[in-house]
Specification:
- The protein has three helices and eleven strands, in the order ββαβαβββαβββββ.
- The strands form two sheets. Strands 1-5-6-7-9-8 form a six-stranded mixed sheet, with no helix packed on it. The protein has a five-stranded mixed sheet with strand order 4-3-2-10-11, with helices on one face.
- Strand 3, helix 2 and strand 4 form a beta-alpha-beta unit.
């Protein structure tokens, strides 16, 4: 799939809960990446009302509907190629050699942005049920500026 998105919405670990705050935060995305642990197929259908959606299967996605989700996804989003998987610890390739500029994952429920060997590793955190004291977040990846900009949106901040 080849497209030229400026803003990519990143979401993960919804675990069957799609908060209204997540929908509002992802409005205006040119495409949305769900990095697994969806929990309910209706979540993907609802996200598709906002933008095209690419989703991978997470470790809790074991129901029959989820078996149709790939374990990994490659997205051509000019000017970058993005590799998506649920658990970054399962990454079994060299992203530089494979030509990926960005790796998107979930699983840890911790929002993060790191760089290794010129490859940007992103985890939008968890948008589903709160776990421990971790934040409840989604993210925006802005590709229309250099360096690329990543914004993490705390979905519970607006409730305070």
């Amino acid at each position: 799939m080849s497209r030229n998105p400026k803003c990519i919405g990143l979401i993960s670990d919804t675990h069957g809960l799609l908060r209204p705050q997540a929908l509002r935060a992802l409005e205006g995305s040119d495409l949305i990446i769900h990095a697994g642990d969806v929990g309910d197929p209706e979540i993907l259908e609802t996200l598709k009302t906002l933008a095209p959606v690419f989703a991978v299967r997470g470790n809790v996605d074991t129901a029959p509907w989820a078996l149709a989700l790939p374990e990994t996804e490659i997205i051509e989003a000019s000017p970058v190629t993005i590799y998506v998987l649920h658990n970054v610890q399962a990454l079994d390739l060299d992203p530089v050699a494979a030509g990926f500029q960005i790796i998107v994952s979930g699983h840890s429920h911790k929002p993060s942005r790191t760089e290794h060997g010129g490859v940007l590793f992103l985890n939008p955190g968890s948008a589903g049920p709160r776990r421990f004291d971790l934040p409840v977040t989604v993210a925006h990846l802005q590709l229309d500026q250099a360096p690329w900009k990543i914004d993490f949106i705390d979905l519970l901040e607006s409730l305070k």
